[in-house]
Amino acid sequence: MLSIFKDYLQKKVAITDEQFSLISDKLKIKTFEKGEMILMKGEVSSHVYFVLDGLLRSYSIDSKGKTHIIQFAPEQWWLSERNGILFNEESEFFLDAIENTKAIVLPKDFISESAKIVPCMYELNSTMLNNAIRFMHRRINMLLSATAEERYLNFITLYPNLTLRVPQWMIASYLGITPESLSRVRKDLAHKHFKP
Amino acid sequence: MLSIFKDYLQKKVAITDEQFSLISDKLKIKTFEKGEMILMKGEVSSHVYFVLDGLLRSYSIDSKGKTHIIQFAPEQWWLSERNGILFNEESEFFLDAIENTKAIVLPKDFISESAKIVPCMYELNSTMLNNAIRFMHRRINMLLSATAEERYLNFITLYPNLTLRVPQWMIASYLGITPESLSRVRKDLAHKHFKP
DNA sequence: TTGCTTTCTTATCATAGGTCAATGCCGGGG
DNA sequence: CCCCGGCATTGACCTATGATAAGAAAGCAA
């Protein structure tokens, strides 16, 4: 199972099998049941997760009890809670498992520790973080400018995979609209494609 | 002027004056006039900006010609365009100057180059990027869950400084609402505070 | 100062999307 | 096999915010 992570790393940076075995002793694999909580709001997180199989998410719950999905983390994605990682502060978000999931649990200093052995880990880290920022810029732009329909179309082309695995109310929650609205959008789209 | 940047670095990481002088020869200071374009959508960016004095922004323009502000960068903030930095790809966003601005222009490999001399630059980089992600998670959460009024109140408490320096239509654009709506929100808030 | 441009406010009207409530549809547990 | 609880759909209605237009105010340049 760890070999998935090794393959992932080797695709990104030049790291030998020996180097990997040196850093991989810090890694643990953990299994989460569908629906299982990983981190509650208010707790202090000290781990980063790399999803091997399954699907995790981070989300908030607002004052009216509605949930808002900040991020999906399917296979080969990272999930972490930055308040804890950076400053030992309490989390603003919840983390849980949408599907039965196997994930690698990395201690928060994993990157800096392993970079002492494999310097290129820093490059990897930088690339990953910059990429995350790039994606979030796009998402913010979408939230600022797009209609419900545009958001949904963007989502299904960007994440066709997730579209099938995730219940619609979660997609709605990720897009910032209600499940009812999403249902209407889908209905309209279906009509458009029938009589063009 | 470069000393501002030195002070900034020394506040964040342990870097000596000598070390700074070793890495600072790659740095240029550039002045931008109010309204001056820094990067057009479609261009390939290869620089990162650190604002010494003034105010920069990144934004998009949608199909109806409306602008959406992705980020403000006042003093001591970073501004960069990740498509270019990471993959030499074309920018999705525009960068320009809201005020007359002095900024340090860093070549895109500045961090990795200077880390060869001052290893702790990697830690700085990681902290900065993680922090940016943390802020954007909050912003996404706000865009998903908050009303126009809540967004505005959040903005003025978070950036009281910007609230005064930036025209209201830009704040509206950052919040994802129209200038007219923001004007209404402000009117309502004023009423609330008169008769509590 | 004068005049021009940009920004802000206000009012009216339009609408996308939210809310509420009812119904129907699975799919899994017993 | 049946029942139940989570999803999805739909319709009726409502509201926050967008669109449009016009005028007032505030900068700013000459």
Short description:
The structure is a homodimer. Chain A is of the alpha+beta class.
The whole-number mean of residue pLDDT values of chain A reads 94
CATH architecture of the domain at 2-118 in chain A: Sandwich
Task: Quote the beta fraction of chain A.
Answer: 15-25%
The main sheet of chain A comes to:
4 strands, antiparallel
Regarding CATH, which class of the domain at 2-118 in chain A? Mainly Beta
**Count the helices of chain A. How many?**
9
Number of strands of chain A: 8
Instruction: Enter the CATH topology name of the domain at 2-118 in chain A.
Output: Jelly Rolls
Gyration radius of chain A, rounded: 19 Å
**Largest interface (CB < 8 Å):** A-B, 39 and 39 residues
Distance between the termini of chain A: 48 Å
The global form of chain A is: globular
Question: What class would the helix/strand composition of chain A place it in?
Answer: alpha+beta
Biggest sheet of chain A, strands in spatial order? 1-8-3-6
Secondary-structure element string of chain A: HHEEEEEEHEEHHHHHH
> CATH H-level name of the domain at 2-118 in chain A... which superfamily?
Jelly Rolls
**Share of residues in helices of chain A:** 40-55%
List keywords for this structure.
homodimer; about 200 residues; alpha+beta; Jelly Rolls; 4-stranded antiparallel beta sheet; 9 helices; DNA-binding
